Amino acid sequence: MKAIVNQEDYENRIKKILITEEEIAERIREAGKWIDSLYDGRPILLVSILKGAFVFMADLCRAVSVPCEIGFMCAKSYYEGTCSTGVVNITMDLDRDVTGYHLVIVEDIIDTGRTLNDIITLLKTRDPLSLSVVTLLDKPSRRLVDFKADLSLFTIPDLFVIGYGLDCAELYRNLPYIAEYAEE
Ligand code: IMP
Ligand code: MG
C-alpha cells in the first residue's frame, strides 16, 4: 500500500460515500430503542472494542436510556491459516470484573468474525449475567467463522470501508460518514 503524501492524495482515496451521517444517526436512534426494550430498565455495561468502535460507542451510549456504564478493551487474535486458534491477546483489558453485568459488546465491523468470536469466548468465561453484540457494519460474505451479531445496523458488500471510526493505516477514522476506500 502506497503511503499518503498530501491532502489531495488523501481526499482522492475517499472513493464514494456509502452511508451518510444522517443515515447513521437514524439507525443509532433505532439501536438505542432496541437496547432499551431488550434490557427493560436493567443496568448494562457497554463494551467497545478499540480502536475502530470508539466513534460508534460515543453515539450509541447517548442513544440508550437504561442505566449504562461504559468500558473499553483492545484485543488482537492470532490465526493459523484461515483457522482461528481461539487465542486472543488482550492488549488492554476491561477495568472491572464483569460478573453480575449484562454486557453489550459494541463493535465497528464484523468481517471474518474471528476477532469477535474469540473475545466473546473469553468474556463468557468471566460469567457475565448475559452478553449481546451490536455491530455498526456487517460483511456477511466474508465470514470464516459462524458468527452473527444480535443487532447489525448496516449490512455492506465486500468492500474496504473507512470513516466513522474505521481506518486505513490509521487514517480516516475521523470522517463523519462511511465511505468506500479507493485501492490502487
Ligand atoms: P474480523 O471480523 O476478525 O475479520 O476482524 C474485523 C476487524 O477488521 C474489524 O474490527 C476492523 O478493525 C477490521 N476491518 C475489517 N474490514 C474492514 C474495513 O472494511 N475497513 C476497516 N477495517 C476493517
Ligand atoms: Mg475493530
Descriptive account of the structure:
The structure is a single chain. This protein has helices at residues 7-12, 21-39, 54-61, 114-124; strands at residues 14-19, 44-49, 68-80, 83-92, 102-110, 130-138, 151-155, 161-162, 178-181. It has a six-stranded mixed β-sheet with strand order 4-3-2-5-6-7. Strands 1-9-8 form a three-stranded antiparallel β-sheet. By secondary structure, the chain is an alpha/beta fold. The longest helix has 19 residues, at 21-39. It is globular and about 50 Å long. Residues 49, 52, 108 line the site of magnesium ion (MG).
Layout of SSEs?
Layout (H helix, E strand, L loop, with lengths): L6 H6 L1 E6 L1 H19 L4 E6 L4 H8 L6 E13 L2 E10 L9 E9 L3 H11 L5 E9 L12 E5 L5 E2 L15 E4 L3
Parallel strand pairs: 2-3, 2-5, 5-6, 6-7
Antiparallel strand pairs: 1-9, 3-4, 8-9
Bound molecules: inosinic acid and magnesium ion.
Magnesium ion (MG) binds next to loops.
Features:
single chain; 184 residues; alpha/beta; 6-stranded mixed beta sheet; 3-stranded antiparallel beta sheet; 24% helix; globular; binds inosinic acid; binds magnesium ion
